[in-house]
Design a protein that fits this description.
By secondary structure, the chain is an alpha+beta fold. The protein is 38% helix and 26% strand. A five-stranded antiparallel sheet has the order 1-2-3-5-4, with helices on one face. Strand 2 and strand 3 form a beta hairpin. Helix 3 runs antiparallel to helix 5. It is globular. The termini are far apart.
């Protein structure tokens, strides 16, 4: 019997000198994760954000960012319970960007879309207060997908 892996092994490059691993730093903070959409995901987001920011030298943003991520995920859960959502965390242009994408269906009637956006915005008063206290910004917009969805975000400068 022939070895089914024999051809695959020929494709491997010769052993090269291993490069040193790149340690976590502020400049390389860029993470994306999918969350299953349960109510517990807000807590998972808080824990993940705290740990990542400490590892990347941004401990000063830890609590505000954890609160922001938790509030964004909680809002996504309220509008799309038990539906997968994406959490992205990135350091760019000297600020931390936290983005959550959810699967809230698109509204066909503009008035309904605006009413829904207003309702979601009013529910984010804690996020607004924390981010504004830190000198940041936040917002939400329809996600640019055929199925709809919402992109909500917070921006926290160092």
């Amino acid at each position: 019997m022939s070895n089914p892996m024999k051809g695959a092994l020929r494709c491997l490059p010769a052993a090269a000198t291993a490069a040193e691993p790149i340690p976590p730093a502020t400049e390389n903070l860029s993470y994306s994760m999918l969350l299953p959409g349960g109510a517990y995901c807000a807590g998972l987001a808080r824990e993940a954000v705290r740990g990542l920011l400490v590892r990347h030298g941004l401990a000063g943003l830890r609590e505000t960012a954890a609160l922001a991520a938790s509030e964004l995920v909680a809002a996504a859960y309220r509008f799309t319970p038990d539906r997968e959502m994406a959490l992205r965390l990135r350091w760019q242009y000297d600020a931390l960007r936290i983005v959550v994408y959810d699967q809230h269906p698109a509204h066909r009637v503009p008035d309904a879309a605006e009413a829904c956006r207003d309702r979601r915005s009013r529910g984010m008063w804690l996020l607004a207060a924390a981010v504004e206290e830190h000198g940041g910004d936040w917002g939400l917009t329809p996600a640019l997908t055929p199925e709809g969805g919402t992109k909500s975000w917070a921006l926290l400068p160092r």
